[in-house]
Amino acid sequence: MLSVRGWIAILLVAFTVQAGAVNPAELLDPRDAFRLSVRALDNRTAQIDFRIAPGYYLYRDYRDRVSIKVPLSAADVARKQVRLKIVSQGCAAVGVCYIPQEQWVDVKLDRFQEVQ
């Protein structure tokens, strides 16, 4: 059985957690917090960019902007497009993480020649 001090400690922890609770309505929609763009750099590479809102981050510590280069195949270039499935997970600095976000993006490659 808990002593009076034990119960007071539990209540203080509960109050502290509740006082620091985040109102979900104050959080940005994940697509606004982590703006995605994709473009073809050349006939071998596409680039995925995330512009990250202040107070938010992707994964453990990627803030402000994340760029990822993706190699393209000769088949992608021959089709003149590639469809990328992008899965990301971001968090707000206030201690809330979003569920993983899945987005499909079509990248047109019509101005590039086949990979040699």
Question: What do you see in this structure?
Answer:
The protein is an alpha+beta fold and 116 residues long. It has a single domain, classed as Immunoglobulin-like (Sandwich), CATH 2.60.40. It contains 3 helices and 8 strands, in the order ααββββαββββ. It has helices spanning 4-19, 30-33, 74-79; strands at 34-40, 45-52, 56-58, 65-71, 81-88, 90-92, 96-97, 101-108.
Structural features:
Immunoglobulin-like; 116 residues; three-stranded antiparallel sheet
State the shape. elongated
Tell me the helix content.
10-25%
Query: For the residues shown, what is the average pLDDT?
Result: 81
Beta-strand segment tally:
8
Topology at a glance:
Blueprint: H1 4-19, H2 30-33, E1 34-40, E2 45-52, E3 56-58, E4 65-71, H3 74-79, E5 81-88, E6 90-92, E7 96-97, E8 101-108
Summarize this structure briefly.
The protein has 116 residues and is α+β, with helices and mostly antiparallel strands. It is 22% helix and 40% strand.
